[in-house]
Specification:
Elements (H helix, E strand, L loop, with lengths): L3 E6 L9 E5 L13 E6 L4 E11 L14 E2 L8 H14 L3 H8 L10 E7 L3 H14 L2 H12 L2 E3 H8 L3 H9 L3 E7 L20 H11 L8 E6 L5 H14 L3 E5 L7 H11 L3 E3 L6 H12 L5 E4 L11 E7 L16 H12 L2 E6 L4 H8 L4 E5 L10 E6 H6 L8 H13 L2 E5 L9 E3 L7 E2 L4 E2 L1 E3 L4 E3 L6 E3 L12 E3 L4 H11 L5 E4 L9 H10 L5 E4 L12 E6 L3 H4 L6 H13 L10 E6 L5 H7 L3 H15 L6 E9 L2 H22 L2 E13 L2 E10 L2 H18 L4 E6 L6
Parallel strand pairs: 9-14, 9-15, 10-12, 10-13, 11-12, 13-14, 16-28, 17-26, 17-27, 25-26, 27-28
Antiparallel strand pairs: 1-2, 1-4, 3-4, 3-5, 6-7, 6-8, 18-24, 19-20, 21-22, 22-23, 29-31, 29-32, 30-31
Bound molecules: adenosine-5'-diphosphate (ADP) and zinc ion (2 copies).
């Protein structure tokens, strides 16, 4: 007997983030299960709120007389599977968030949305009878009725919206027709379709090559057994999408559903199109630009079994499929899989947990897997599968690395090496397209020597110092250590040591100067600020309206530009020496991705990487297209420096409008943390200025906590964070567990 329900109330207040109990009235006992969203009276004023039923009990923990009745099932039918409720509880424990914020992430409908219905009109009398009606209406001069009647002569079924539009009658006229028994009106629920599925041509399966077949067989052999995690390490162009689709086909044949996560729809329109052309209207698409109504529709269609595949960014991992068989995460190394707002969950972790709960398998895919995932695969926690050959073309990419130090010695002070300049000239002459890539990510203000390539780093963190013009200082953004700016290179004594930086505008002006006849497009945050300008620029370039596209990492993603035969990386150092322990990993990923843009068609592709430290393994290994070699070098660095995956980090981002107060509080906070840190085996690093040390009027500093185990970090949060936030209530403290960005 479900007499009393445990309920989480839909209200944002951490104090209320606990279970409330309500009585289930007799008439509702059959309608309310775990996962049902209900209306409840709450608080003294009995305010009408929504609540999520997370469990039942016979014996309440409170005085029975004081327990209120559930009012009813919420009108927007948003109830979810019980396992998703368990997932929310897990998220609370894993990410130290409130249950309600986890539930709201699972059911991403904040605003009330209207369900859209469509009315269909069916004529229920024959043409002769209708004609006699029309004669009568004409006599009486009932013009609207006559117009509608004439329209209905031609069709025995039509949409109400069509008849209203074509004959300019009001809905009252339609109702009148119904009253007279001339028509019947059928209401049916319609869904808003963000993608026009019918405009996409259908495609058939490709015959898998041997490698693809092996991967497909391996994954399929385990279907419907205990949940497994696979990591497909497949080079760019190895046909991972085809593998995903053939796996999913079998999942659907078993009556199960699949979720496909992609980093961002706008950046991967090709993948979405591929899936729709293979699976047609079985596919739903989620993305951030959808209206609340569209999101709600997609969510309901998934829950009600109208679709079987959901493609979308990280939040699609919560798609409420009832019989989930497979979760695929394409480009699993992408940072966008981690939420930047609370709950700061990682979609990969959630997917694996959901797999464990439901038995669904998880397939991760990437040409450059995250160090975390590859490490787990090597340890045997994930099954490693490989695709080493290109599926369609046999073209080898020609990657060349240019040592910019030598260019300087030879008197070339341009941003283009002689090699890159000559190649650009060649391609322009041949009317082939060129991408010039600036791998700038966020802030990088490191100081380096143009003569020998030396980069000044903090010895305790092995992270490049960041140059601060104020006071002419170098500051380590991990531990806060500060030294004076140098005037000579500590390694070679050269005076060519300075802050490194170049922007897309500067590249553009160089290009216009050196190649005045070339048609140039630039794509960066400035030029894509306006809505759709992103698509416009890419569209123009694809149509051949420009010869050279200059851009930041926005151009690096999975776009297919068949006419691009040259990719130039202006200065690989830009991302290599950011103040982030993942800088080498990001650089290797970016270089692999962007060089893969060249030579997608039958034409030979060339990639030219310019650098002042071409001997760095991120660069040599991407030239050799050797992920495993890169992994081996990088994992050693992580181990020696005790960075993830060997440790877990908790970033405390602290902010205040008062910069002096912030500095003082940050040191006091650190001291308070030190009092308890050693007991839990935590190391405290910082405080230091954040990479973006001021946003709007807020100054920002960071304290990092490092621990070998995840558990210890969580214990710290649970035991102390609330107290610390109260004590330091004048500054804001935000937590990020295992952040992917460096604050
Ligand atoms: P990835 O995602 O691994 O980089 P894609 O899925 O984009 O690779 O595949 C690269 C190209 O190879 C695509 O044009 C795809 O249609 C094609 N392709 C994939 N598998 C096959 C196959 N078995 N036979 C022929 N072409 C294939
Ligand atoms: Zn340091
Ligand atoms: Zn030097």
């Amino acid at each position: 007997m479900n007499k009393y329900a445990d309920i989480i109330v839909d209200i944002s207040h951490s104090k209320l983030d606990r279970v409330f109990q309500y009585h289930v009235p007799g008439n509702l006992t059959n309608k309310i299960v775990i996962g049902t969203v209900v209306d409840i009276p709450f608080g003294k004023g009995n305010k009408n709120l929504k609540g999520y039923v997370i469990g039942f009990t016979d014996k309440p923990n409170f005085d029975v007389d004081k327990i209120k009745d559930i009012t009813g099932v919420a009108s927007m039918n948003m109830s979810i599977e019980a396992h998703l409720i368990k997932l929310a509880v897990w998220m609370k424990e894993r990410y130290a968030c409130t249950i309600i914020s986890a539930l709201r992430t699972l059911i991403p409908i904040g605003k009330k949305v209207n369900e859209k219905t469509q009315k269909e009109i069916i004529r229920i009398i024959d043409v002769d009878e209708l004609e006699s009606y029309i004669k009568m209406w004409d006599k009486k001069n009932y013009k609207a009725l006559s117009r509608a009647g004439n329209y209905l002569l031609a069709c025995d079924k039509c949409k109400q919206s069509a008849i209203i539009k074509k004959t300019d009658v009001s809905p009252a006229v339609i109702l009148n027709l119904e009253k007279k028994g001339i028509i019947k009106i059928n209401s049916e629920r319609i869904y808003r379709e963000p993608y026009n599925v019918n405009n996409i041509k259908r495609s058939k399966n490709k015959l898998p090559n041997m490698e693809q077949q092996k991967v497909i067989n391996k994954v399929l052999s385990n279907l419907n057994k205990e949940s497994q995690v696979y990591l497909i390490h497949g080079i760019t162009g190895s046909g991972k999408t085809e593998v995903y689709m053939q796996i999913i086909e079998k999942v659907l044949e078993k009556g199960q559903q699949a979720i496909v996560l992609i980093p961002e729809i706008a950046l991967t329109p090709q993948t979405v199109r591929n899936f729709i052309s293979r699976f047609g209207n079985q596919v739903g698409v989620m993305h951030s630009k959808l209206s609340a109504g569209e999101k709600y529709d997609g969510w309901r269609r998934a829950r009600d079994g109208d679709i079987s595949i959901m493609i979308g960014p990280r939040s699609a991992v919560f798609t409420p499929f009832k019989n989930l068989g497979m979760i695929i995460i394409d480009e699993e190394h992408e940072m966008s899989y981690k939420s930047e707002v609370s709950p700061k969950y990682h979609a990969r972790e959630v997917a694996i947990k959901r797999g464990e709960m439901t038995g669904a398998d998880v397939v991760l895919g990437s040409a450059t897997p995250s160090l975390e995932s590859y490490h787990l695969a090597k340890e045997g926690k994930y099954t490693l599968l490989e695709l080493k050959e290109k599926a369609a073309s046999t073209n080898k990419l020609d990657v060349r690395v240019i040592d910019m130090r030598e260019e300087l010695i030879n008197g070339n002070k341009s941003i283009f090496s002689d090699t890159l300049r000559n190649e650009i000239q060649n391609k322009l002459f041949n009317k082939e397209q060129i991408i010039l890539f600036l791998n700038r990510r966020g802030y990088s203000r490191f100081v380096s020597c143009r003569q020998c390539g030396y980069v000044i780093k903090c010895d305790s963190c092995d992270i490049p110092y960041t140059y601060h013009a104020f006071g002419d200082k170098l500051i380590c953004h991990y531990c806060g250590k500060t030294i004076n700016m140098v005037s000579k290179c500590p390694s070679c004594n050269s005076k060519y040591i300075k802050q490194f930086g170049i922007g897309t505008e500067k590249v553009e002006s160089y290009v216009r100067k050196e190649f005045p006849t070339a048609r140039v497009l630039r794509m960066d945050l400035d030029t894509t600020a306006r809505k759709n300008s992103y698509d416009t620029i890419l569209g123009k370039f694809r149509n051949g309206e420009a010869d050279i596209l200059i851009g930041t990492q926005m151009v690096a993603k999975g776009h297919d530009f068949p006419d691009v035969t040259l990719v130039g990386v202006i200065a690989a150092d830009l991302s290599l020496y950011m103040s982030d322990f993942r800088a080498s990993e990001r650089t290797f990923q970016l270089l692999t991705q962007v060089t893969g843009r060249a030579g997608r068609s039958n034409l030979q592709g060339t990639a030219i990487i310019q650098s002042y430290t071409p001997e760095h393994y991120s660069i040599t290994k991407s030239k050799e297209q050797d992920y495993i070699g890169f992994y081996e070098a990088e994992i050693k660095y992580r181990q020696v420096m005790n960075y993830p995956p060997f440790s877990n980090l908790l970033a405390l981002l602290i902010q205040s409008t008062n910069s002096k107060e912030l500095i003082k509080s940050s040191f006091e906070l650190k001291n308070d943390i030190l009092l308890v840190a050693s007991r839990l085996g935590l190391e405290v690093i910082g405080p230091s200025p954040a990479n973006v040390s001021k946003i709007k009027n807020n100054y920002r500093r960071v304290i990092l906590l490092r621990s070998n185990g995840y558990k210890e970090l969580m214990q710290f949060i649970i035991r102390y964070m609330e107290r610390l936030s109260i004590k330091y209530k004048d500054i804001s403290i935000q937590m990020d567990i295992n952040p992917l960005i460096s604050y």
